[in-house]
Specification:
Number of helices: 4
Number of strands: 7
Strand content: 15-25%
Radius of gyration: 23 Å
Shape: elongated
Distance between the termini: 36 Å
Length: 233
């Protein structure tokens, strides 16, 4: 099977990360169109059925997993991976809805405690669904390794951010020192200009602003009208 899920664009807001996803032609749009593949997901991540699934047909994802949108399943797999990292806070939640006028296209919105965490979990979830609906061939996804990898990506991003902040602080101190020295020399040398370099305000975020789009608006019609949540144990 060709790539099942294409993440075409994302929007990162302080509280939410929204991804627009398209399901490939020939791939299942709903989980009941390939129950074998859906069962592979359940066998890999059995705790997924205990997710709260508000606003849908039942109280938990178990009640709808056998007949819901594949994009909705993608949301819950990402939530499960986030929860397993132990760094997503007490609750990870999401919503999925169909995009009006764009066939086979959905917006998947997840709470965003950390954009690297959410992006990594969503990408990993898409890969897991690809595996499940493409025959579940070996090697089987190692969920523990995937979760460890997500944690590592978040830690690396945090370390990079801390390094950049330290470099900005050092640049600021150097600029202040240069200005003071130039000011002292100006009294004996006449007009001496000292132009200190300000810290760069355009630091590149883990997800570049250029990749973001506006959050979904009124043209996005809820398909599942769903808000899902899983509390950490």
């Amino acid at each position: 099977m060709a790539q099942l899920i294409d993440i075409t664009k994302v929007a990162v807001a302080p509280q939410h990360f929204t991804a627009r996803v398209t399901i490939a032609n020939g791939g299942p749009l709903t989980t009941d169109q390939d129950l074998v593949g859906t069962t592979h997901i359940y066998n890999l991540l059995p705790d997924i059925i205990d997710h709260a699934c508000l606003g849908d047909k039942g109280a938990t994802f178990k009640d709808v997993m056998g007949a819901t949108e594949v994009a909705h399943l993608l949301e819950h797999v990402a939530v499960e991976l986030m929860a397993r990292t132990g760094i997503a806070g007490d609750i990870s939640c999401g919503r999925t809805w169909e995009v009006t006028g764009e066939p086979r296209t959905y917006d998947v919105q997840l709470a965003c405690p950390d954009d690297v965490l959410v992006a990594s979990a969503l990408s990993s979830a898409a890969w897991i669904l690809q595996w499940a609906y493409s025959g579940a061939r070996d090697p089987k996804p190692d969920v523990d390794a995937i979760v460890a990898g997500i944690r590592s990506l978040v830690a690396d991003a945090d370390a990079l951010a801390a390094k950049r902040e330290a470099e900005k602080a050092e640049q600021g101190e150097a600029a202040d020192g240069s200005a003071e020295a130039s000011g002292a020399g100006a009294a004996g040398a006449g007009a001496v200009n000292a132009a200190g370099t300000a810290p760069d305000a355009g630091e590149i975020a883990p997800l570049e602003a250029g990749a973001a789009t506006a959050a979904p608006g009124a043209d996005a019609t809820p398909a599942s009208a769903d808000a899902s949540a899983r509390a950490h144990n």
